[in-house]
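Lab notebook, bench 4. The sequencing result for the construct came back, and we need a structural model before the next group meeting so we can plan mutations. Quick request posted to the team channel:

Model the 3D structure of this chain.
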Amino acid sequence: MKNYKITVNGNVYDVTVEETGSSASASAAFTPAAPAPKAAPAPVAAPVSAGTQGDVKISAPMPGKVLSIKVSAGEKVTKGQIIMILEAMKMENEIVASQDGTVASIDVNEGASVEAGAVLATLN
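Done. Here's the predicted structure in token form:
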């Protein structure tokens, strides 16, 4: 077994690799691939807001990507109504209104990557 330390997108992982097969394959040289050039980030439209932040913040429960936004600023919502869909770990997670109210702001755009705890929207 061989241990490697691998960095992917700034995250460091310790990896253990088990050697199998003949000694010829186990002694083959490992040549890391050249890193891919970083692409310029795509321009992102400004989030839609009704003017000000609301009193009730709806935050991302986990890091992920905003797949779709189901409501718009100024729209009335009820507790449990789907506000947006957040993709995390290949699963679609429904982000819902925590109470009845009016959407004061949508603070992210479709396609945006968000961190856990990031404010996604606010309600009044």
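Confidence is low (pLDDT under 50) at residues 24-28.
Will bring this to the meeting.
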